[in-house]
Amino acid sequence: MKNLNQLSTPYYMCDESLLRNNLEILNRVQIESGAKVILALKGFAMWSTFPLVKQYLKGCTSSGLHEALLAREEFAKDDKNLEVHTYSPAFKDEDIDEIALISNHIVFNSPSQLFKYCDRVKKINPDVSLSLRINPEQSSSPKDIYNPCGLYSRLGTTLENFDERVLEHIEGLNFHALCEQDVDALLEVLEAFEAKFSKYFKGMKYINFGGGHHITKNGYDVDKLIKIIKDFRAKYGVDVYLEPGEAVGWQTGVLVSTVLDIVHNKMDIAILDTSAEAHMPDTLAMPYRAMVRGSGEAQEKKYTYRLGGNTCLAGDIMGDYSFDEPLKVGDKIIFEDQIHYTFVKNTTFNGIKLPSLVILREDKTLDVIKEFGYQDYKGRLS
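Above: the chain's sequence. Below: its structure in token form.
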């Protein structure tokens, strides 16, 4: 075991006790509402934590073959009660047979994809449940890049494009319309979804409410969510699924980096051994400002610095932050809440080293789960 001072930066560190806290909240939703909560791997795929996660959640939802394999191998391998759901905007011929073998549910994005593959996957796995993703055309997603119901969205089937012939093949309907949103946003989506598609609910076994529910964020109205789910289940006689990713990893850990140099170009700029572009891409794509421990807004505290990454991309900038004391080479910079949508998306751009993966156990011991090096960069190239 190592202590924090012995760890080489950069590294992501997941706090197991904080993760359990989130799982307890999600499990309360399951117990009190009767819904099933499954983990969306696209947001949180730290499979070294799965022994803990699967004590609470009912399975995983994956976005294609490789995520489905991870779910089957590391989450649901030894427990037939744990489910693997697989969705893709479009499945490929070369993948669909294996997906059928390892999935409990397959979610098709369009009627054409469903008609193309429904007989084939049922022949391979007669027990697989099929469903169709719906676009309710209602969302208040904060950014267009994350809005699955935006104008011209390719994700899900609109009412205009719904083909009633799918009803003889499917057991459920799915929608995913939220992004880091509260329960009132869900209500707005549900109203649109019910108004357009409730006439098709008869005979359905389940409705999947998708992800984007910010259930574990402080202030989220969990009681209201539970009531909504209970009322929906009672009204339509269906099971309900939720598939959060971010809500599982929300505020469970950090990205720790080191100041390598400080330069001045009309302002002080600290160059770190991490990268916004490579290691926390959502800060540029969303965009949002990552919190830095002990910092304030620019000029709020006495010493202001621009924090920059150690790549050649001019825009590899985390933002401007202020501190009570001047930064110096060797100081640690800790970016908060960097366990979800970070290492599932990070890259070796510019050959920069990937951050190690570390778990702070509930007994306060540290486990370095994975360290990366040159071969990880070279192995992605040819």
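The mean pLDDT is 95.
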